[in-house]
């Protein structure tokens, strides 16, 4: 739905599930198997393109076999909702991931070739777990979030969701209740998260955690509150509210009925603020550090971790990971890959503003980076690790980028080898490129060709924002998280982090 989550993942992730129910996610094959085990299920696939057109495909029968049978898919009874039949082609196929090839192609590993995970045949009519390519793109054939029968091989959908429900009526109503509970919880999480985002200070993960904590905190008292109010009114039967949303509605109605009481919405906000106070207080700082080096200089005992810095002044609070250990510490990390959780194939405005979570994978943002390197001498360190536990680094004594008006042009020099070799000097003097803003030195579009975003030349010696490919893979040339001088073009690193600090 938004291209925030990476879906190119190994078998155990697809087995257990990943992502967040409020956003992009995969439920997990094991849960799916158990859900469809005892009842007859139908499946509906809803999708939307980037022009706002919506269609669906529906199948009256859906189930999957247990893991011992490769979670084999059984789907039939197609009804066309405008999307065409993308799934019947996959009927009878086992589930395949890049590290567990159970597809029907003897020539290729479909998951590696089409950068997804699915009940691949040889290979697909639908690739819902492919790369979120933000619309039409035929640079690399068929790797997007594709539904062939509607938009062809090289159109990556804006949204797609696959949903199931039991055919049997009684079971259906139970399932609907359960579903509405989940929806209610999800919409509460979204609401609270939006509120928290407007308050600034916390990152995405913390917002979600806080929202979840608030839900837990508020659910019982509100149910209790609404129940008490009901009991006091003699003319009404004292029916206890059945759900959280019912309790919340009752509570807000009471507030509205009493004259002179603050409006329900502001009341809800004040309740949330009250509960948030400790969280916010601990985040407020007396000083506004520009970068991790400021924090490090203020107190050399502070450990590595997530801190708030202010690269563009008091209103520019942003969370970063500070490396307080490497080579004397005080490093501000502006790019980090470590577990393949975040999707890095994103448009210009995402790379300008930054994305991800400072506690995990993230990109700080070109605008912050520009301000951090402005009128100071800055050095760059790139730390990396392969899947065998080997570590290496490359260090550059000078690093800066130009403003957006100059395409955030890169200036990097003064290489010192920490075993990784020099893959950055090749990019010196290049502007930053994303798939939707080609400023590279190649006739084609390097970002689309290498599924990343970087100071591409023609095109790269390193692709730190490429596809997290979990190690060696030469199926598609140089699209991984590569560092040419250490592991070549077809080895996607386990971790890489790019960090800066003022020259000491
Ligand atoms: Ca170009």
From TrEMBL:
Gene3D superfamilies: Gamma Fibrinogen, chain A, domain 1. Residues 1-168, 283-504 form the Fibrinogen C-terminal domain. GO terms for cellular component: extracellular space. Coiled coil: none annotated. GO terms for biological process: elastic fiber assembly. It holds the Pfam family Fibrinogen_C. Keywords: Disulfide bond. PANTHER family: FIBRINOGEN/TENASCIN/ANGIOPOEITIN (PTHR19143), MICROFIBRIL-ASSOCIATED GLYCOPROTEIN 4 (PTHR19143:SF225). This is Microfibril-associated glycoprotein 4-like. It comes from Scomber scombrus (Atlantic mackerel).
């Amino acid at each position: 739905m938004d291209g925030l989550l990476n879906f190119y993942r190994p078998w155990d992730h697809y087995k257990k599930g990943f992502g967040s129910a409020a956003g992009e996610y995969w439920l997990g094959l094991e849960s799916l198997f158990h859900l469809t085990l005892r009842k007859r299920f139908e499946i509906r696939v809803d999708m939307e393109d980037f022009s706002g057109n919506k269609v669906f495909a529906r199948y009256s029968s859906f189930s999957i076999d247990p893991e011992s049978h490769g979670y084999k898919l059984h789907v039939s009874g197609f009804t066309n909702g405008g999307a065409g039949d993308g799934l019947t082609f996959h009927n009878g196929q086992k589930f395949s991931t890049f590290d567990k090839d159970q597809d029907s192609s003897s020539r290729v590993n479909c998951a590696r070739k089409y950068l997804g995970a699915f009940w691949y045949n040889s290979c697909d009519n639908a690739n819902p777990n492919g790369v979120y390519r933000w619309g039409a793109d035929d640079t690399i054939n068929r790797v997007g979030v594709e539904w062939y029968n509607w938009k062809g091989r090289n159109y990556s959908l804006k949204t797609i969701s696959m949903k199931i429900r039991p055919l049997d009526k009684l079971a259906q109503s139970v399932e609907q209740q359960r579903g509405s509970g989940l929806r209610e919880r999800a919409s509460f999480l979204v609401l609270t998260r939006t509120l928290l985002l407007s308050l600034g200070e916390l990152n995405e993960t913390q917002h979600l955690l806080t929202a979840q904590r608030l839900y837990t905190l508020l659910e019982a008292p509100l149910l209790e509150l609404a129940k008490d109010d009901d009991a006091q009114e003699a003319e009404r039967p004292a029916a206890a509210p059945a759900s959280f949303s019912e309790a919340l509605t009752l509570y807000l109605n009471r507030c509205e009925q009493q004259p002179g009481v603050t409006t329900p919405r502001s009341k809800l906000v004040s309740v949330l603020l009250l509960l948030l106070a400790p969280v916010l207080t601990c985040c407020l700082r007396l000083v506004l550090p520009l970068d991790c080096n400021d924090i490090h200089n203020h107190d050399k005992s502070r450990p590595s971790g997530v801190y708030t810095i202010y690269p563009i002044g008091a209103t520019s609070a942003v969370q970063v990971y500070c490396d307080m250990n490497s080579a004397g510490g005080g490093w501000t990390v502006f790019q980090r890959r470590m577990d393949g959780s975040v999707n890095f194939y994103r448009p210009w405005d995402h790379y300008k503003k930054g994305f991800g979570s400072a506690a995990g994978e993230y990109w700080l943002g070109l605008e912050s980076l520009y301000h951090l390197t402005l009128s100071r001498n800055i050095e760059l360190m790139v730390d990396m690790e392969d899947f065998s536990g080997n570590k290496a680094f490359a260090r550059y004594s000078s690093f800066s980028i130009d403003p957006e008006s100059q395409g955030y042009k890169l200036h990097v020099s003064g290489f010192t080898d920490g075993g990784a070799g020099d893959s950055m000097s090749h990019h010196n003097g290049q502007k930053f490129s994303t798939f939707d803003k080609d400023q590279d030195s190649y006739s084609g579009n390097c970002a689309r060709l290498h599924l990343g975003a970087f100071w591409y030349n023609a095109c790269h010696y390193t692709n730190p924002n490429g596809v997290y490919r979990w190690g060696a893979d030469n199926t598609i040339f140089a699209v991984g998280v590569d560092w040419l001088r250490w592991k070549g073009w077809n080895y996607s690193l386990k971790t890489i982090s790019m960090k800066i600090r003022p020259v000491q």
